[in-house]
Every structure is written in C-alpha cells, then in structure tokens.
Design goal:
single chain; 242 residues; alpha/beta; seven-stranded mixed β-sheet; 6 helices; 10 strands; 26% helix; binds 6-phosphogluconic acid
C-alpha cells in the first residue's frame, strides 16, 4: 500500500500522466478492467487524451466504466458527470454499451442508488466491489466523489443517495469502503483553488473525505499541477510519499 503525490508542471502534464496510468492499468488487467470515473470538470482533458491517443491501444472491449458519483439530473444535462465523460471519451472509443454502468440520476437519488447498487452487485458479486482503478477529484472543501465533510454517508452500503442542500444538489456516490477497496486510486487535482486542500491533506493530514481515501490493499497517487502544489514545502521534490 503506497500513497504518493506527483507534482507536474501543468494540467496537460497531469492529464497525460493520468492517461498513462489508466492505459498501463488497463493493459495489465487480465480479462476485464473495472474503472470508476471521477466527476467534476478536471478530468475533461484526461478523457480527451484517452480518446485521441489511446483509442487503438487499449482493449476497450475489456473496459467496464462506472462512476464514482453522479448528480441526479438527466444524462444530457450540462452538470451530468456522465455527459462530460460520454462527450469526451465514451462516445469516441469502441467500448460496448453493455460495459457502461451509468448511474441513472434521472430516477432521483434514492432509486438511482438502489439501481446502481444492484448493478455493482451484478458485476462484482456479493463481496465489496474492488475496482481496478478509481479516478477521483477533490473539492476545495475536502470532498471527494460526493462524500462531503458535512454529509453522513451510510458506509454499510456500496452506493448511497446524498442531498447537498447548500449546493441544491441531489447525488449518488460510491461510499468510502468501496473507494478504499480499490487496487489503484488516482486523484487528479489542479488549480490554485485546490492548493489549500492539497496542503491540508498532504502536510496537515486534516481528515477530510479526500484524505480518508487510502486503500490499505492498494495504491493511491495524487497527480497535482504546480498551482495546486503551491503551498507544499520543498516543491522541488516532485514525487513524495505521504
Ligand atoms: C462531482 C465530483 C467531485 C469533483 C470535485 C472536483 O460530482 O462534483 O465527483 O468530487 O471531483 O468537486 O471538481 P472539479 O474537477 O470540477 O474541480
């Protein structure tokens, strides 16, 4: 089990590194490769690189796409995490439709969570899902997926409904036990507005949800650009364990 942070010069370098990790993990998988995609906007460039440069390299028929979380909106709504991934990646590579395990946010958070849990059980069986790879982002308040510092998430489940009143947003999210059972977790965190949360997690060890993702039987890597690393001491070090 390792947890490292890699500091890269730019969003482009972070995205390329993330795509490289995705491809290596996918090609190393035997049979099928399960990945949960992050929400938010940061992974957009990563998704485009995968579609533009790895379409002929990755065995997409072996890749099963899930989501770390989803907003309860129609799948073509501008704030849908699925829409971003579908527009930039899923619709541009030859992944079979049956391999796309979308969270049906349009059903409302309670029903969408139940339906997603059933899909997870159908794929992973009754044991705790162990994703080959989970891509995550981090909010400036320390949330990850849709696990927020002020939200209570039923960790006895694999996927749960979440209501975020201050964002007027209903969502479905994977729970911490699932995130912490992954073989590999990659955080993609860029921009100066994430500098404080990166410091809080890496240096000050503040137990934000994003800091609590650290699989004991897996590896976690934070890929950050220099803006998000701005408050880290000794930034000449580009890879460090934490
Ligand atoms: C979501 C995400 C969330 C996201 C962070 C960072 O649905 O919003 O899952 O956890 O990764 O909020 O979002 P940005 O990449 O847009 O900064």
């Amino acid at each position: 089990m390792t947890r490292t942070i890699e500091i890269h010069d730019s969003v482009e370098e972070v995205s390329r590194r993330a795509a490289d990790i995705f491809a290596k993990e996918a090609l190393a998988a035997s049979g099928r490769f399960s990945v949960a995609l992050s929400g938010g906007t940061t992974p957009g460039r990563l998704y485009s690189i995968l579609a533009d440069e790895y379409a002929e390299i990755i065995r997409w028929e072996d890749v099963h796409f899930f989501s770390a979380d989803e907003r309860c909106v129609p799948k073509d709504h501008p704030s849908s995490n699925f829409k971003l991934a579908n527009d930039l990646l899923l619709s541009r590579v030859p992944v079979p439709e049956r391999n796309i395990h979308r969270i049906h946010g349009e059903l409302g958070s309670d029903q969408a969570a139940i339906t997603y849990e059933r899909d997870l059980e159908g794929f992973f069986g009754l044991s705790l899902p162990r994703f080959d790879l989970i891509l995550l982002g981090a909010g400036s308040d320390g949330h990850t997926a849709s696990i927020f510092p002020d939200s209570t998430v039923d960790s006895a489940k694999t996927a749960v409904p979440v209501q975020i009143a201050r964002l007027n947003s209903n969502r479905v999210t994977l729970t911490l036990p699932v995130l912490n059972n992954a073989a590999t977790v990659v955080f993609v965190v860029t921009g100066e507005n994430k500098a404080e949360i990166v410091r809080d997690v890496v240096v000050d060890r503040v137990p934000f949800p994003a800091a609590r993702v650290n699989p004991q039987e897996g590896n976690t890597v934070w890929l950050v650009d220099s803006s998000a690393a701005a408050l880290l001491p000794g930034r000449e070090v580009t890879v460090l364990e934490f």
